[in-house]
């Protein structure tokens, strides 16, 4: 969930009736960055396009209730700084990062010193990292001033923008707030309206960016380059950040503060009675009011009118558990998003989501629904028939009459119906019927060698050679190997190339290296960028092989074996 629940250093309460619903908050409590909040870290050492600085994750520090991003000068004159973004990595897991489509963004920050040629950049930019613009800059610092900018694409597909300078001593703590609406963007500093952009408002989801910036000697609009000064170190600090989704309702201007809101927490409801359970995961995107809906099973409504509470933007879901005694066979579930007066203008995010359903603990395929107001959708689930019970009734016993003995002369010893003679050494008329353990039978599968294989042998399990459910082999030249939900083993050979293992679980799953010296293994944190996620990179062997483990932070040599 992209909301950190630690207490912020600012302390003021959030106005829950302001026309906004908070979907993202981080006050940087603790001693490390909340990775799920910030899927993209700009810190891989790459040189920025202006040639003036490199991103280095070592310039990021969290402690004392603040995020600190440093600027440090290298011996060659290049600067090092860093950046973070709440935009989710493309193709990453659900429920990471944070974004809004219209609403309020708040950042409280300060820099250690006002200088020419460097400073923080606080912004909103596309959640979809594959394109740019649009962008909203709350703060850039050219010429030791504040700069507010809105970027957009013109009708000819070209980049355009409008900027406004404003006076602010950004070396002191200030709260920067932008109210982003479908027709305008307004900047407030400490609750005071500072700049306004009418029109050209972005019309797609935007996420937060917090970046350090150093200008080059060709970017004189930013001021005299930093290298012309004797400064070798700067830093800026961020106290907290907040994203609030606009509900469509009227709202008051910001008061210059924000803290974690406790409104719109996920609901958990139990409805109906019976031994069977149908569990729905439901969420909403709001406009003016929470979505109301009904649930019917086979045309019969269960419960009354329900109200969604969980916000889809926050990665949450209400848990609605329906109880019943449903007969064996196919059943239809209908969800109806009730019509009301809050449909909203085009482009407003008013939606009801059925994200998942399970029946008696089993996932229901095809249950995901996305509904607009006054729309309905349905899916089906199957109650399996009860398992057939077969009872074998023994036949009534029939008394066996006692036979009348037939007198036999004492000289006759053979019975009247002699048993067949068994001559093991002879070759029977039907060779297949002979049981000759040392020979090869005509049908090898029918041969029985009692000393080696019992008539009903138990399966032989040899874990070191071939498990019953063999682990997937990891060939480094492959792209992605998925891990399952249980304990998985991945065989890794000494070969070149990189393989990604999705959902690897430290402490549960295992990397088993063959032909690899344990001393050649290196484990490093990979911090990703706009096209790759963060995670751990395991390098090994003599051929340049590596395994990438997305979103992993705790894999050690204890999660590996060597054969």
Would you tell me which CATH topology of the largest domain applies? Jelly Rolls
Rg calc: 35 Å
Number of strands: 38
- At the first level of CATH, the class of the largest domain is Mainly Beta
**Mean pLDDT, rounded to whole units?**
79
**Corresponding CATH architecture of the largest domain:** Sandwich
Instruction: Describe the oligomeric state of these chains in a short phrase.
Output: single chain
Poorly predicted parts: 3-17, 389-393, 406-478
Helix vs. strand class: mainly beta
User: Can you give the helix content as a percent range?
Assistant: under 10%
> What's the overall geometry?
flat
The DSSP helix count reads 0
- Give the biggest sheet: 11 strands, mixed
Q: How far apart lie the N and C ends?
A: 40 Å
